[in-house]
Amino acid sequence: MIVRARKVTAAALTSFLLAVAPAAGVAAVVPTQLAAATAQPDASAGDTSETTSAVPDTPRTQAGDPFLTLSIETVAPSTVTTSSDPFVTVRATVKNTGDRRVDDVSVRMQASAAIDTAAGLRTSLTLDQERFDRVGDFVTVAESLEKDESRQFDVSMQLRSTTEPSLGIDTPGVYPLLLNVNGTPEYGGTARLDDARFLLPVVGLPRNPGELDPVAPDAAPLPPNTRNPVAMTVLWPLADIPRLAAGIPGSIDERVRLIDDELAGELASGGRLDTLLKAVEFATKPGLDPGGNLASSLCIGIDPDLLVTVSNMTRGYLVVDDPADPASTARDGTGSAAATAWLARLETIASSTCVTALPFAQTDLGAVADIGDASLIQSAISTPADVVDGILGITSTRGFTWSTTGGVDADTADALRSAGTGSVLVADNSLSPPTSAPMAQLLSTDTAADPDAALAAAHYDSATAAALAGVGATPSTPALTPAEQRYDLGTDSRTARLQDALGAVNFHALVGTDRPGRAVTVAPPQYWTAGGDEPSAILSTVSSLLRSGLATPRPLSQLLAEPTSGTPVTSVDTATELDTGTIDLVRSQSARIETLMQSLVEDPQSALTPRLFTAPLREDMLRALSTAGRASSMAEKTGTTAFTRLAATRIGIDAIYGSVTVLAPGGVYTLASEQSPLLLVARNDLPIPVNVLLRVDAPPEMTISDVGVNQLPARGSRTITVPAEVDDTRNLSVDFSVTTLDGSRLGEVSTVSVRSNAYGQALAIITACAGALLLLLAGRRLWHRFRGQPDPADEGYERP
Question: Which helix (H) or strand (E) is 197 found in, with range?
């Protein structure tokens, strides 16, 4: 069982604790709640100089719970240097989480050999505990622990010694360490009940107090090898999960609505986004970074969705009571002041630091490519740079995309290229074949037809990214992390997870110093929950590597300027967790947005343009496809939020379509003649003009002429004259509606009852009959006249 605990703090232990640690290197324990702990091995564990392979795997209670849980709280020093103390001290807490008392609780520290591969940064933390073969003595930290009782303690061990048990660290490197706790549960035997693991980066070795000759070579401090520094590029993400309420179109004067007010706390002093930004501000100060090395190697990745949200918060905002119904009741948000201050600080730091725009809302680029909507692709990939530049007043890095999932498949590569991306950053373990080239040619389906269509692929170290993803309140595991490098981060403490990240950041500077052209790109997850002292600890580590000569800065611009070299590669992406129903819904709603966009009309007198009006709706589609939180314990909540967002967006689009309609006239239209026109009223409740077509469903007895395109004013109505010809005097029902320019219906169908005062066919029949009768009578008169016979009709009539 792998357990790591971290309550982030880099403070050294008190002088009292250091004083009681024996100089000879024997494991020392100073329990906080135990007045005196006897430092003697647990006899049941056997020879303490050997591994504990004889101790069975950690047993569980009948309910499946561990008997003891070990949690690491501080490690001092967190990074060993030549000026550090010659021993490591760990403060931890052991708690009885079982269902009975545990007696004779004892711990010891163990270490394994230095890690020699990047994959070992993760796999070393899952090794069997007997692989940690450099062991100290067991020390009793509690005579007994009752159920739910805990005990805090400190344990120390020398880094190296020729006379006493030590961690056996004799060269710089990254070393896996383990705390092992034994105990005797009531009604049971002595067993190993838990352990906690973490990485200890050793940049340089301090003096060896165990060497009797102070001038001997092994006694002197051992500095690191700085003859071949690693070129380092660091990406620093500022992003959040989507917060804007869905289904609400853009406006000029209305306050935005958020689904919650958590972002206010993240922007305020001590919040996650505040500490991420503060770490950059502090570490790049001229006094701490006089040569500008850290600032040069650093590039801030900013989610434009976060910027849009924060920028709107500065003008006041609302928090909805029900995210599923964003138009319902809402309360005033509390973070306007914090948003204003944070945004001003970001503008200052962005004016002198490399900035790149992340994909909008950290959307799943593979899903966007599958949907195949060109406007959606542009909004996800190319528009973000415009958003970031417009809000911050800077010029960000263009033509570059940082993959949200760590991989880019062939279809996604084609989509990136179509949106103007020339280079993409992916995880090194997504590339096939593996490459050490700074920039490699990324093949796609378009490459065969057009070799110039290939992207340039840069790569970051995936193992380091996985370690950094474990830092923070909500640890995550990147989707491309191999199975052998995965384990339950929920059992680790924040201190242990931070130690793992510090070890990973140091690794490439300490290992492989004989390889030419060494370089590494460090990239945390885009949605990163690091907070408190964690961001500063990580940037301080990078700064120390640059100051000591173990690393040199490699600006992102320099990396992107590298020509592609080596064998062309392909990149794999993880299968999207989004179901086909979600993809289809996004595809259909995005098409409706584009249809609406084509019918809206720009009004020179209004600042609200069709693009500004529809942009939030299209962005809602990208927010629903966001990858933020999907690789962590938040995955279920994130999926539910995305589903709610899509449902709200569809309702919002339906409401917009329903805002343009033909008004039902009521009663019956009576036409004065068979060719009298119909007068209809079409209303537009949108704040922007719209062009519409009139759709008519009339019976065969009625002919309607096409009236063409009609423009309806913003929040107004217009009377439409419809030429009509009626061939019947009966009441006729005619259905009228308005549509977009491509024929998509707007609003409801209005049924009009029409009646004509003209006789129509009846008049024609009567006229024909009358004419026939007239001809008959005239013919009869002529017939009698030709025969010289009086016409019977003339009887009684005498000539004068």
Answer: strand 191-202
Asked if 653 and 588 touch (Cβ cutoff 8 Å), the reply is no
pTM for the model:
0.84
- 790 sits in which H/E element: none
Burial of 168 (0-12, 13-18, 19+ CB in 10 A): middle
Question: Which residue type is seen at 460?
Answer: Y
pLDDT along the chain (800 residues), means of 10: 30 28 37 30 34 51 81 96 94 93 94 95 92 93 94 94 88 96 90 93 89 71 92 98 94 93 97 98 93 96 98 96 90 97 98 97 94 93 96 96 95 93 96 94 75 85 96 92 90 94 97 91 96 96 96 97 93 78 89 94 92 94 91 79 90 94 72 67 95 88 83 93 74 86 92 67 66 77 69 56
My answer on whether omega of the bond before 433 falls inside 30° of 0, hence cis, is yes
Contact yes or no for 10/205 (Cβ under 8 A): no
Burial of 28 (0-12, 13-18, 19+ CB in 10 A): buried
Single out the residue of 242, 243, 244, 248 nearest to residue 652, CA to CA.
248
Which residue type, as a one-letter code, is found at position 552? T
Total residue count of the chain as it appears in this document: 800
User: What is the C-alpha separation between 144 and 162, in angstroms, rounded?
Assistant: 34
What is the distance between the alpha carbons of residues 680 and 703, in angstroms, rounded to a whole number? 16
Query: Cα(151)–Cα(31) distance, rounded to whole angstroms?
Result: 7
- 77, 57 Cβ separation under 8 angstroms: no
- Alpha-carbon torsion angle 785, 791, 795, 797, nearest 10: -40
Comparing CA positions, the residue from 384, 449, 386, 456 lying closest to residue 417 is 456
